[in-house]
Specification:
The chain has 355 residues and is an alpha/beta fold. 50% of the residues lie in helices and 12% in strands.
């Protein structure tokens, strides 16, 4: 009864998990477009830069994603740096950056807030409309600064003019590769995260699978929670040790040993029913006949078969058949002994109740 109530409770909990699962799934689905690190090429949401990156790849631009210091890069590799709002990790006016550009470095610097656009060196040579982008020369190098939104996914689904202007300016430079350098995109305390940067659709599927697996483990698992108490002792079968040993010998093909185990157990049953005073091992058949037990012919046949085991054909197939037949008779006669014993106890119980 307790187990039945527990199962019923588990079913109700499992049913309650379904609306919770749906609510979490739908709630997560509503926000899955804004996934990953803002302005990362791995982010396919509205604030990502996956569209410009994938488009340039398809147009055979030599683009790749890197995570390195700008000043450590060679001058033939254009560095594309993005700076999210309030991110102060990259400083375009840093002396090392200035030196790298002056010696021939080429930098595309895209910002989110106006404070980061203040370039304190270089000569302006081109400007995009509304001052959203500018190109400067400094020493042997070039700098392109602009609003990061010009190439963000959300903008590119509506207007591609800003992205086209940036590409047209880069095409005027000499370079071997274009590197989206995201080393400065993360704050000092923040590191690149595989989970944060994978597509929202994949996150959604993994989220659903996690809830589903958790629900199955909770409902079906017997080792994931409180142990189920065993309220009833398991009843051991009678003479199970003898049968287990006999089964092992049976597998090994030791038919003589198997038959001896069964026959010895049968004799113990006879002795247990009639007592040691009446029981004589070699004369159990006479006892069977004197007590008027049923299936006397079967008992006589067993007696003959046991005494003629030595003369059994040595053919493995015939021997096996003969032994199985003998064991079958033993089992049949044992059932008679068990019934007789049960009826004896019933009579004894009635006699005790009368007293």
């Amino acid at each position: 009864m307790i187990l039945q109530n527990k199962n019923r409770k588990d079913i109700w909990l499992f049913i309650l998990l379904i609306p919770v699962f749906l609510w979490l799934s739908l709630n997560y689905a509503d926000h899955r477009n804004d996934n990953g690190t803002s302005y990362s090429v791995l982010n396919r949401g509205s604030k990502g830069m996956s569209i410009i990156y994938e488009t340039m790849k398809k147009l055979n631009y030599p683009v790749k994603l890197v995570l390195d210091n700008v000043e450590d890069k060679s001058h033939d590799k254009v560095q594309i740096i993005v700076s999210a709002k309030n991110n102060r990790k990259f400083n375009i006016n840093n002396d090392e950056i200035k030196k790298w550009i002056k010696n021939g470095g080429k930098l595309v610097y895209l910002y989110e807030d106006l404070e980061n656009r203040k370039l304190k060196y270089g000569k302006k040579i081109n400007t995009y409309e509304k001052n959203d982008g500018s190109v400067y020369s400094y020493g042997k190098g070039k700098i392109l600064t602009g609003n990061i939104k010009l190439i963000a996914n959300k903008t590119l689904t509506i207007n591609t003019d800003g992205a086209y202007w940036i590409l047209s300016q880069i095409d005027k430079w000499n370079y071997n590769s274009l590197e989206f350098n995201e080393f400065y995109l993360y704050e000092s305390s923040q590191k690149p995260s595989l989970w944060r940067d994978i597509p929202g659709g994949v996150k959604f599927i993994l989220f659903q699978l996690a809830i589903l697996i958790g629900a199955i483990i909770f409902y079906k698992g017997k080792r994931f929670g409180r142990p189920i108490p065993l309220y009833e002792e398991v009843e051991r079968s009678e003479n199970e040790y003898i049968y287990s040993v006999a089964a092992l010998y049976h597998k090994a093909g030791c038919w003589e040993v198997v038959l001896k185990s069964y026959y010895d157990d049968f004799l113990l049953q006879v002795e247990g029913l009639f007592g040691k005073n009446e029981y004589i091992k070699e004369e159990w058949l006479k006892l069977w006949e004197n007590k008027n037990l049923p299936k006397l012919n079967k008992a006589k046949k067993l007696y003959r078969m046991i005494n003629s085991l030595v003369s059994i054909d040595k053919s493995e197939k015939k021997r096996r058949k003969k032994y199985l037949e003998t064991i079958s008779i033993i089992e049949e006669l044992k059932k008679i002994l068990i019934k007789r014993r049960e009826s004896h106890w019933k009579r004894l119980k009635k006699d005790i109740q009368r007293i």
